[in-house]
From TrEMBL:
Pfam families: Aa_trans. Keywords: Membrane, Transmembrane, Transmembrane helix. It comes from Parnassius mnemosyne (clouded apollo). It is found in: Membrane. This is Amino acid transporter transmembrane domain-containing protein.
């Protein structure tokens, strides 16, 4: 497979069950009379075959990568430092950031190499995982389709979980503001979750990514304003760092790691950004788009986490905006701006899992039912995310749980496995250092997965004092009852 066989002037390329006969215009022959040399074929260069209608410049790609990483997650960093302490948090943010950056690097590097094997100009995340197995060791090739499907569904679940985090954030932000200015109408967080249902269902009916661009642009402006206001309050009257914990208790560290991974990991958007570049060779390397973007991200995340924890200490909440003063109009406006920014971002995040779900099922549904099916699925997903958010409206624990389960797997474990599989027959470096390095990353990912999930779930059960399914049912019923009364 993939080996060319010369027969006259015809070359058999990539022979499989649906073999294609094609002449190869790119080869150069060195044959001479009596020569035993073989035809030298020019190595396939995927960059030369990319046909992007509107490619992004290097600066544009840098902006896109920064935009995907510098979202609402940065406001959760002070809460992450609360679970680590100033010293462990500062060092841990750098270490986790370095590991996340390296995992993105090996994913993109592996994707570019398997594109050469598969003779394809570009691949997405799931395609890269499948191709790594398909062109890897023979015993692992039957797993190619499973790897591709697993990553597809894992990405969809990651974005669906993030939608629940968004709803909790929106609900808590509006409750903070309206409780202050409407004290006669104190509503629960669950009720505010329910009140987001109608606008979210409507905005999620937009199916064309083009029409979501204005919402994304508005969200970016609101995020910048909110971030500036938040920084103003954080750096006003900072207490002494000596008043805060330097090292938190070790059992809390998994919450720190999971929160940082959730905030920093943008693994789902990396491949689309690289695939749309006019000069994709500038994505990796030093200085490259990835290194520059992640250096800025790690620096800003560490800065906000460090000083946000110094400012608010152990009272810091899942999003530092919720700690802003209740009696100041500028602080309250920042909370509303952030809630609106997340509301407008919701539809963009929703697009990713919906696209994957629809790709899987649209061929099984008659065309005349496509519209009603789309409406039903979109409404059902929003209903489910609102119900789950209302059942467990704890932003900090929800963020750490999502980071532990999904992003530690997708952002750390999967890239380590994919590079190992791809390099297995091609060489694992001096003393197999690539294997040992990836085993270390896999262990970190597994620790984050199990320890982070255990601590998060235990915290949720202790806080709400109910089993998960029982709390989900009761929370949904309470949400419906309060909304009907309202």
């Amino acid at each position: 497979m993939g080996v060319d066989e010369k027969k006259g002037s015809i070359v058999l390329e990539n022979f499989n069950s649906t073999a294609n006969l094609a002449t190869n215009p790119g080869f150069q022959s060195t044959l001479s009379l009596g020569s035993k040399e073989v035809i030298n074929e020019k190595t396939y260069n995927p960059f030369e075959h990319r046909n992007v209608e509107h490619p992004n410049s290097t600066i544009g790609s840098l902006v896109h990568l920064l935009k995907s990483s510098l979202g609402s997650g940065i406001l959760a960093m002070p809460a992450a430092f609360k679970n680590a302490g100033l010293i462990v948090g500062g060092i841990g943010t750098f270490i986790v950031g370095f590991i996340c950056t390296h995992c993105v690097y090996i994913l993109v590097s592996t994707s570019q190499e398997v594109c050469i094997d598969a003779k394809k100009p570009s691949m997405g995340f799931a395609e890269t995982c499948g191709a790594a197995f398909e062109f890897g060791p023979k015993r692992l090739r039957p797993w190619a389709n499973f790897a591709r499907t697993f990553v597809d569904y894992a990405l969809a679940c990651t974005y669906l979980a993030a939608l629940c985090v968004y709803i909790v954030f929106i609900a808590e932000s509006f409750k903070e503001v309206l409780d202050e200015y409407m004290p006669d109408y104190i509503l629960s967080v669950e009720t505010y979750c329910a009140l987001t249902l109608v606008p979210l269902v409507l905005i999620c009916q937009i199916r064309n990514l083009k029409w979501l661009v204005p919402f994304s642009a508005i969200a970016n402006v609101l995020l910048v304003i909110c971030f500036a206001i938040t920084m103003y309050y954080i750096f006003s009257d900072l207490p002494s760092p000596a008043e805060r914990n330097m090292v938190a208790s070790v059992p809390q560290w998994p919450l720190f790691m999971s929160t940082v991974i959730f905030a920093m990991e943008g693994i789902g958007v990396v491949m689309p950004v690289e695939n749309e570049m006019a000069k994709p060779e500038h994505f990796l390397g030093c200085p490259g788009v990835l290194n520059v973007a992640m250096t800025i991200v790690i620096g800003l995340y560490g800065l906000v986490g460090f000083f946000g924890y110094i400012k608010y200490g152990d009272d810091v909440r899942g999003s530092v905006t919720l700690n802003l003063p209740q009696d100041e109009l500028m602080a309250q406006s920042a909370k509303l701006l952030m809630a609106l920014a997340i509301l407008f971002t919701y539809s963009l995040q929703f697009y990713v899992p919906m696209e994957m779900i629809w790709r899987q099922i649209h061929n099984k549904i008659p065309v005349k039912y496509h519209n009603i099916t789309q409406i039903s699925i979109r409404t059902t997903i929003v209903l489910g995310s609102v119900a789950l958010a209302a059942a467990f409206p704890d932003l900090e624990l929800f963020i750490s749980l999502c980071g532990a389960i999904f992003l530690s797997s997708l952002g750390l474990f999967i890239p380590a496995v994919i590079e190992t599989v791809h390099k297995w027959d091609r060489g694992l470096g001096f003393l197999n250092w690539i294997l040992w390095k990836n085993c270390f990353i896999a262990v970190i990912a597994i620790i984050a997965l199990f320890a982070g999930s255990y601590v998060s779930i235990t915290g949720i059960i202790e806080k709400f004092n109910q089993p998960v399914l029982e709390r989900l049912l009761n929370g949904t019923l309470n949400m419906v009852n309060e909304t009907l009364i309202l």
